[in-house]
Amino acid sequence: MNEEIARLRTEFNKNGLDENDISDSPFRQFGLWFDSALSSGIHEPNAMALATVEADGRPSVRIVLLKGFDESGFTFYTNYNSRKGRNMLHFPYAALTFFWPELERQVRIEGRVEQVSNAESDEYFAIRPRGSQIGAWVSEQSQVAESQAAMLSKVAEIEKRFEGKDVPRPPHWGGFRVIPDRMEFWQGRPNRLHDRILYTLNSDHHWDISRLYP
Question: Which residues are marked as active site?
Answer without folding.
Answer: 192
